[in-house]
Amino acid sequence: MSKRVVVTGLGVLSCIGNDVNTFWNNLKNGVCGIEAIPEFEQGGLPVKIAGKIKDFNPEEYGMDKPFIRKQDPFTIFAMASAFQAMKDSGLVTGENIDAERLSTYVSSGIGGFATIQREIEKMVEDPTGQWISPLFVPTMISDMAGGQIAIKYGAQGSCIDIVTACATATHSIGEAYRAVKHGYTDAVIAGGTDHCAIPIGAAAFGNARTLSRSEDPKYASLPFNANRGGFVMADGSAVLILEEMEHAIARGAHIYAEIVGYGSTCDAYHATAPRPDGSTQARCIRQALDQAGFDPSKDNVYINAHGTGTQLNDVAETAAYKIAFGDAAYKIHISSTKSMHGHMFGATGAAEAIAAILALKDGIVPPTINLDTPDPACDLDYTPNVAKEAQLTLSLSDSFGFGGHNACIAFRKI
User: Is residue 255 situated within a structural domain?
Assistant: First the structure.
């Protein structure tokens, strides 16, 4: 018998807030956290902007100095979001959940980017390798964020690192949903994390011609805008606690929303470009809609779009919505919050899922800021510039990653 799955805890770390309330308030108010990065400018990089975490003290999130010193930032970020989400949920291993029934699906699209760069620089300096850290592998490997979270909270269920580029966190949440739904676990710490806004990241993605080269950080991430010139990289992490509904009710947990659908497909088309007709992306969205029992005559829908601000993505994504929703596509509310927090790679889907949940809960659609010149090919309601109130019944978050990975998750109010 399949079970119902609810969200009982949230945590986020981003360039627009180091906690959920700050993050959400800044989204509603159209606050942009993207800024000029002196390290990029001084290095002569053509990309000079990013979304960086600000005023962050890991010790405030249950980490001690020895632990912080040994970890890559992507793991530290994940630990901070998991700390918030677990505290929010009230789950305590051995008290209100069995250790073997708590799982961890926290993933990273890239892993310890900064650690990899640092240790390779040592190898270039001294090819004997004698100065390479013995902790290099367990620090940089992408499953370590989930592993360290499981250690911290005694989660002895599955601990799985799903790597699907920019769709990483959405797939992690979706697969966690399936694990709870089919009875393999009672709760999952699920989400994503990445720390890529460093010089090697800016050079790599910049040379791939995917990044915005805008000189104005506040007018750089421009989803669905005719003036868009690429995405803006950002650091961050986000974690959701997914829990079997009866388990959550029995312990008196606060429930944010029910997760009611999950779609996953592959473009099978190109390593970096999306399938241009949107057909495979649409099938992913449609899977989530069908599981959610979408009714175009009754449902008022919000979608937190992938909305990267690249020329190819935004047009293909618009086409996907038109295929998935048919005539109803022009009635749905859509926005790309990447216009404010940038693209957090493996973390972005989880942060955007939080935005989709809170939009549903509060009846507020966050805006796509700086949408002053809509692309004629992107002619749906992308909520330009200002948040709007809406009595939403269903919210979705979709993510598309290099390699053609597509994921979509759907939420309803309880």
Answer: no
Domain that holds residue 92: 5-250
CA-based angle 134:138:142, to the nearest 5?
Answer: 145
Annotated catalytic residue 306? yes
Q: Are residues 16 and 158 in the same domain?
A: yes
The set of residues, in sequence order, having a beta carbon less than 8 Å from that of 295 and lying 6+ positions away, is none
Tokens of 170: 């959405």
Looking at residue 150, what is its pLDDT? 98
The arithmetic mean of pLDDT across residues 68-72, rounded, is 97
The β-bridge relationship of strands 49-50 and 35-36 is: antiparallel
341 classed as catalytic: no
- For tokens 């992507």, the residue is 74
Contact present, 302 and 289 (Cβ < 8 Å): no
- Catalytic residue (choose from 171, 343, 405, 408): 343
* Residue 293 one-letter amino acid: G
Q: How many domains does the chain have?
A: 2
Query: Can 254 be counted among the known catalytic residues?
Result: no
pLDDT above 80 (res 1): no
Least confident of 40-44, 161-165, 289-293, 399-403: 40-44
**Structure pTM?**
0.97
Rounded to whole angstroms, how far apart are CA atoms 140 and 194?
Answer: 11
Domain identity same for 25 and 100 = yes
Q: Which of 159, 166, 284, 408 is catalytic?
A: 166
Q: What is the Cα–Cα distance from 166 to 270, expressed in whole angstroms?
A: 15
pLDDT at 41: 87
Q: Do 53 and 157 fall into the same domain?
A: yes
Q: Are strands 394-401 and 388-389 parallel, antiparallel or unpaired?
A: unpaired
The string of pLDDT tens digits covering residues 293-324 is: 999 999 999 999 999 999 999 999 999 999 99
- Domain shared by 319 and 175, yes or no: no
Residue 298: the pLDDT is 97
* pLDDT of residue 120 exceeding 90: yes
| DSSP helix/strand/coil, 360 | helix
CATH number at residue 199: 3.40.47.10
> CA–CA separation, 107 vs 169, rounded Å?
6
Banded model confidence at residue 193, pLDDT cuts 50, 70, 90: very high
> Considering only CA atoms, which of 69, 22, 36, 12 is closest in space to residue 218?
36
Say yes or no: 354 and 385 in one domain.
yes
